[in-house]
Design a protein that fits this description.
The complex is a heterodimer.
Chain A (H helix, E strand, L loop, with lengths): L15 H10 L7 E3 L5 H12 L6 E4 L3 E2 L21 E2 L2 H10 L6 E4 L3 E3 L4 E2 L2 E2 L8 E2 L6 H4 L5 E6 L7 E2 L16 H4 L5 E7 L2 E5 L6 E6 L5 H6 L20 H11 L13
Helix pairs in contact in A: 1-2, 2-7
Chain B lengths: L7 H6 L6 E4 L9 H9 L5 E8 L1 H8 L3 E9 L8 H8 L4 E4 L2 H12 L4 E4 L15 E4 L8 E5 L5 E9 L5 E2 L7 H4 L1 H4 L2 E9 L2 H6 L4 E3 L6 E4 L17 H10 L3 H13 L4 H7 L2 H8 L7
Classes of the chains: A alpha/beta, B alpha/beta.
Chain lengths: 274, 297
């Protein structure tokens, strides 16, 4: 890869999907190991971008199983071939992947989506409604997320549809532990790690170090405080001082995403088109 | 070694009403779909399913009224969306879900396989999965003085259903190089009985050439059935991809009970043989389309 991405000027023509990919990609470095789950086009594109630019040695486990894959481009499924094309190793899941994931030394960061996230970063992919056994909506289920939330991982949530539906005061069901009811609740259970950031189509958020309430870290270009607050089902904390603007993608990053990584626009799935 | 070859009909007859059935099926991958269709033709009732990530197989069994409970980590057809028939059955209270995360399910099955009362994990501590399931999950003290761990009670399914690349007549099962999920890594080892469908039954001499690719020993297998394209419309890497058109057609039909029923009549109940099913689903033209090339999925 030519080094031009390092000096490339900010793009003026880009989509919020591309902004989310570049923001996520910045979080992954050469010493990290990362893995992806189902329908994870944004994280997969971010891993591929990081590997093509600042983190060529980033270790990626495609579908949490295919070591160091070389897919030609982002495919229609992130849980199927050809995502794991040219892998160095297939990690058998039961006896192998989870050994590495549960051991605290590796795979420190996990990037994932959730149907609902609350002000303390608790996540719900299980049911909408009060009655678990007769829910309004039966969601897919927690899969490996409930594990990742409790075994010391740093969690990075991505949300292509920041709304009062997806950003709620209290999740209907805790499928993955965030900071529970805030403060030191998580620590009291002996849980390390936890949600670090939420990257939505409107803003980047982190969590207040003491209260563990969700806090705006930066607003995407053109997004106002009112807009992101109106789209959130709880009161967002604001950072001290002026609110930064999320750094837009560079021209070179956008070109890589559109022409090399994801020419089939898989990354746009999950985003509203209106 | 004892011969295990049988027919699809006889293999499915080994599954009894009300059994707990562990089913290989990773969203759009590697489900023993021919066997699932035969279970539906035999009008099984009251089954419990154990899945890591169930897909169309779960939706069909739900649509057929064959299942009333599910133990699993997720049910989804990934890019083709939620399993609508299953979803509605859960929302109406017709299917009861014991949701487990992956390490919880693995721990329950691992304990089942090893004849232990439970295995512990640190997964899911702090979630609502625990309070929901007091019969099978309990926080316990670490006897060695560390933080609490979650004890996951042994799960022993009555039968595990898997589909694989090849097997011999004795039920020794071999896989091409591919990603092996807990569906094969632990489910058959925990279950009381194992039924295998396979693309091809080969001579044992073929298996002897690559013993490192043998993933299940015949002595744990009760029945083996040769069913070419037995995972269709799910994928069997590296032989064939998932059938996108078929998944889309089902996902559309499944939104409406009548359309779902007529889809099931056409593709599940009417075809008497695997050959008839494959013809109904598009025949050789369809099968050629699913061959792995450098296709993009």
């Amino acid at each position: 890869m030519s080094p031009e991405w390092q000096s490339s000027p900010p793009a003026t023509n880009y989509g919020v999907d591309e902004l989310m990919i570049t923001t996520l990609a910045d979080l992954f470095h050469n010493d990290d190991q990362v893995c992806n789950g189902m329908a994870s086009f944004i994280p997969v594109a971010a891993f591929m971008l990081a590997r093509l630019t600042h983190a060529p040695e980033l270790i990626w486990l495609a579908s949490a199983a295919g070591l160091d894959p070389r897919p030609e481009r982002v495919p229609a499924s992130t849980l199927e071939a050809p995502l794991w094309r040219d892998s160095v190793m297939y990690l058998e899941q039961y006896g192998d992947f989870w050994n590495y994931a549960l051991n605290g030394r590796w795979i420190e960061k996990f990037c994932v989506g959730a149907a609902q996230l609350d002000q303390y970063g608790n996540a719900n992919n299980s049911v909408i409604g009060d009655d678990y056994h007769a829910p309004k909506v039966r969601l897919p289920g927690t899969a490996g997320l409930a594990d990742m939330g409790s075994i010391g991982k740093k969690l990075y949530y991505w949300n292509p549809d920041h709304s009062q539906r997806s950003m709620v005061e209290k999740v209907d069901f805790i499928s993955a532990a965030g900071y529970l009811d805030g403060g030191d609740a998580r620590k009291r259970l002996g849980l390390e790690g936890g949600p670090q950031m939420v990257i939505s189509n409107l803003a980047v958020m982190d969590f207040h170090p003491e209260s563990k309430k969700m806090r705006v870290q930066s607003l995407h270009p053109g997004v106002t405080v009112d807009k992101v607050q109106d789209a959130t089902g709880f009161e967002l904390l604001m950072p001290d001082g002026a609110i930064p603007e999320t750094r837009p993608p560079s021209k070179a990053q956008v070109k890589l995403i559109r022409e090399v990584i994801d020419p089939d626009d898989m990354r746009k799935r999950g985003f509203r088109t209106d | 070694m004892r011969e295990k070859i049988t027919s699809l009909v006889e293999a499915a007859e080994l599954v009894r009403d009300n059994d707990v059935v562990a089913l290989q099926n990773m969203a759009t991958q590697a489900a023993p779909m021919a066997l699932v269709r035969e279970l539906i033709r035999q009008q099984k009732r009251g089954l419990g399913l154990v899945v890591l990530v169930g897909g169309m197989a779960v939706d069909w069994l739900a649509a057929a009224g064959a299942i009333n409970r599910l133990i699993g980590a997720a049910v989804t057809m990934e890019q083709f969306g939620l399993c609508q028939q299953y979803r509605r059955a859960v929302e109406d209270g017709r299917i009861r879900v014991e949701e487990l995360s992956e390490t919880l399910l693995n721990a329950r099955l691992g304990a089942g396989a090893r004849n232990l009362p439970f295995l512990p994990t640190r997964g899911a501590i702090g979630t609502d999965l625990i309070a929901l399931n007091p019969d099978n999950l309990k926080l316990i003290e670490d006897p060695f003085g560390g933080h609490q761990v979650l004890a996951c009670r042994a799960l022993v399914p009555d039968v595990a259903l898997v589909h694989a690349h090849r097997a011999d007549r004795y039920g020794n099962v071999q896989s091409e190089p591919t990603i092996l999920w807990p569906d094969i890594g632990i489910m058959p080892k925990a279950a009381k009985h194992v039924i295998v469908t396979t693309e091809k039954i080969v001579d044992t001499e073929v298996l002897r050439r690559n013993p490192d690719r043998t993933i299940l020993p015949g002595f744990i297998v009760d029945a083996v059935v040769e069913v070419p394209y037995g995972a269709h419309p799910t994928s069997l890497f590296p032989y064939y991809s998932y059938d996108s058109d078929f998944h889309r057609a089902w996902a559309e039909a499944a939104r409406d009970d009548e359309k779902a029923a007529s889809f099931m009549d056409r593709y599940v109940r009417s075809p008497a043989t695997q050959q008839e099913y494959l013809e109904a689903a598009g025949g050789t033209t369809m099968l050629e389309r699913l061959e792995y090339r450098e296709q993009r999925g």
